[in-house]
Design goal:
alpha/beta, 5,6-Dimethylbenzimidazole Phosphoribosyltransferase, Chain: A, domain 1, 2 domains, six-stranded parallel beta sheet
């Protein structure tokens, strides 16, 4: 049995019994009107179910930024050349990017994962490089089927390592051209049209957007991928960083490690993970609603994000902010006084007994 098959067999099929009821009972015992913290309350219910405890925690926090280069950039689908991926990895390692700032502010340990960046290997990154970037999927598969499986299983293994050290993790990415890969994946798994799936990425103008959509249309026509064969979809269109994120999401679920998904690109990784394990949404959080055009279609499947700030930076920035929000919610859940402790009349109890 492969690592992927073992992982899929290990993911809990149903939520642990009694956890949700116990967490809701505590929320209702705290000095506030019942349900007054809105979705924060249900977010902690989900966190508790994933961690299989009535005392969920986010004390040990980590962010994994997966990086890879894309051959599709040869078609001019991005405002920036592929070399910017490597330059940004250096910036991550030096601590100068937006994700570094947010992670420092929220006490989130940051890991930069080299999933497939060209050139000499970096000091200060986690070396999981599959190859020096993918091939141009307008002319053939982005990677071999074997490379696709290797990237997914590398992500699974990385999640196993993370589960031994952290209570919650976020996933983000960097890869010039990866919004085109994500759009292709969205089309295959949701039936979205290229027009619905294609966005401006790093800032394309109208002409650039139209060209990107045309490239995507041609690439989809070239690869007759079956959504029922997710490894074929990964091979055809994904980047190594996207495939590795998908594996990380699956591996984390198997180890009861909550994952906060960032935006559109990491959302595409979620779609891959969901194709392998349809109930994976119960094991993750969606950090924010990206302004990237295709993300709205991805979220139509009922996955409500924690934040909606009009962001589209990537890197894990939305996930970092969402981890900060979840950490605040955990503090409320664990530190607020109950009605009995505060000697406050329990209006929640009065309401429930009067019905």
């Amino acid at each position: 049995m492969s690592t992927l098959e073992q992982t899929l067999a290990t993911i809990p099929r149903t939520p642990p019994q009694g956890i949700a009821d116990a967490v809701r009972e505590r929320w209702d015992s705290l000095t506030k009107p019942r349900g007054s913290l809105g979705r924060l309350e249900e977010s902690i219910v989900r966190l508790a179910e994933i961690q299989n405890t009535t005392k969920p925690t986010t004390e040990r926090r980590a962010m994994y930024v997966f990086c890879g280069e894309h051959g599709i950039t040869e078609e001019g689908v991005s405002l920036y050349p592929s070399v910017v991926t490597r330059e940004m990895v250096k910036n991550f390692v030096r601590g100068g990017a937006a994700i570094n700032v947010l992670c420092r502010h929220h006490a989130i340990q940051t890991f930069v994962v080299d999933a497939g960046v060209s050139g000499p290997k970096f000091e200060g990154t986690l070396d999981r490089r599959i190859a020096e970037g993918t091939r141009n999927f307008l002319h053939g598969p982005a990677m071999s089927r074997g490379q696709a499986l290797a990237a997914i299983e590398s992500g699974i293994e990385l999640a196993g390592e993370a589960a031994e050290r952290f209570d919650i993790t976020g996933v983000g990415e960097m890869g010039i051209g990866n919004s085109t890969s994500a759009s292709a994946i969205l089309c295959v798994f949701t039936g979205a049209t290229p027009d619905e799936a294609t966005g401006r990425g790093a800032g394309l103008d109208d002409a650039g957007l139209a060209h990107k959509c045309n490239v995507l249309t041609a690439a989809l026509a070239k690869h007759a991928c079956d959504a029922a064969d997710p490894l074929a979809v990964v091979s055809a269109f994904a980047g190594f960083e996207i495939a590795m994120m998908a594996g990380f999401i699956l591996g984390a679920a198997a180890h009861k490690l909550p994952v906060v998904i960032d935006g559109f690109i990491s959302g595409a990784a979620f779609l891959i993970a969901r194709a392998f394990y349809p109930a994976i949404a119960a094991h993750v959080f969606f950090g924010h609603r990206s302004a990237e055009h295709g993300h709205a279609r991805l979220l139509e499947t009922g996955h409500a994000p924690l934040l909606d700030l009009g962001m589209r930076l990537g890197e894990g920035t939305g996930a970092a902010l969402a981890i900060g929000l979840l950490t605040s919610a955990v503090s409320l859940y664990r530190e607020m006084a109950t009605f009995a402790e505060a000697a406050v009349s329990d209006t929640n109890q009065k309401e429930s007994t009067s019905k």
